[in-house]
Amino acid sequence: MSRGETYDRVRSILSSLRGTYGHCPVRQTTISVPTTTYDRLRGLAERSVVDVGVRVNNARGESLVVRNEGGWTDPCGHVEDGESIEAGACRVFHETADFTCDIEGLLGITILCLTDASDAARAPIYRLGALFDGGRTEGTGCEECQWRPVKSGPFVGAY
Question: Which stretches make up the Nudix hydrolase domain (predicted)?
Fold first, then answer.
């Protein structure tokens, strides 16, 4: 997989999201990752280059967050091959938080350039992360869910 493959796919998705949702904050960053992580993400990039999160707030302005190995975050995950970004966001939200949601807008986009920390000659992998504004509709909630004050900006983040 060449640099251009994932880069071009990310640029196309970014253009589509801007066409649907208009302007939103975009941040770009480069991260060097261990070879095992790079290889896993390279395999994932063959199916999808999009990660999604959904932020749902309650009347007190707190966000529904879930615990994962990195701490508390917005419910997030990967879009599957052939799945729309919005459908993937709703599926991920349901799978991680045990609620259904509606997509009400796009809060922010992160473009990641991932490089192999051990081999600079390997082509970078580009991924797009989209954080959606969601409205919770129904569900029981998972054991690993909590309402917490928003601490990160318009990007998927730790709480």
Answer: 50-103
